[in-house]
Amino acid sequence: MCEFITAGGLNRVELPQSLVQEGSLMRDALLRDISMLLNIQVITTHDARLSSPLLGSTPITDDDDVMLIWQNLLKNCDATFIVAPEAGGQLASLVALVNDSHVLHLGCSLSAIQVASSKYLTYQQLKKAEINVIPTYRFDELMIVKELATESEAQPSLFNKWVIKPDDGAGCDDTICINSLMEVQQYLTNKAQTQSIDAQIIQPFIEGTPASISMLCKAGQAWVLGCNLQKVALYNNKFVYYGSVVNGFNTRCAHFVMIAKKIAQAMPDLAGYVGVDVMVNGDEITVLEINPRLTTSFAGLHESTGLNVTKLILDLFLTPVFAMPEFNQINNKPIEIIL
Description:
Layout: E1 2-3, H1 5-9, H2 17-35, E2 45-47, E3 58-60, H3 66-74, E4 79-80, E5 82-83, H4 90-100, E6 104-105, H5 110-116, H6 119-128, H7 139-152, E7 162-166, E8 176-178, H8 181-191, E9 200-204, E10 209-218, E11 221-235, E12 238-246, H9 253-266, E13 272-281, E14 284-291, H10 298-305, H11 309-318, E15 335-338
Parallel strand pairs: 1-5, 2-3, 4-6
Antiparallel strand pairs: 7-8, 7-9, 10-11, 10-13, 11-12, 12-15, 13-14
């Protein structure tokens, strides 16, 4: 089991405490679930600056080649839980390492990760499947749209607020709000003088309530476990994620289930646990991004649903025909996660 942040993935740089907190929540929830199961031995590592999560965990110092250590530990494993940020290809690199070691990866395929790790590619895939997904542009594309709108004056919405974020970013990292398209152009033009802007994407700012879907996927099927309320605030034009209420949005359960099924059909290589960020505005639900890995909401799912979600993931991959235990989604207990 490898939760990238707490397991030593940042062993040579300063540890961001917010990421440590989120990573610890997911890691510890996995360990709690696994501790309830028979005949499973967990192998893991931890950043030596942090407490050991498990007896026998291997400490990782700044002198260690962490990828080499993980590669060697994989030789003694039958299966892996990998939790890592999409940014910089970290999740994809770890899953590729697992695949090269011929160990079962209890998560999305590498092809699904490569699509979902890019908000731009995700937009194209979901739009093709006629799913309501937020429009996503590269800078050069948006400038063409701007010129067309200026000429026709047919799209005044182009001059409202916009959001700039890394194409492979996770959560609210480096996500900012800009007041107009003209300011977007100025901001990115200035930024291009010192760094590449090719990895940035631009999306229209949409009003609504941030939410997320926690689901299991396999071969085009989806099972929803969480309809979650997301806590996101805007401070000085920067978005900040400060927690969630797991199953705090059960009133929209039927709509979330429908979206989950459409996404699974559009991206059949999604597998295991998947998180989907959405924006809810009245009857309209817009997909913002797909997280092909555990999300922070996972930490509250066992208590909310009464189900051992880790066991469900194992069953999903290890049994010929997976059957979700019967439970009434609307009766799930809201569980607050505070960051």
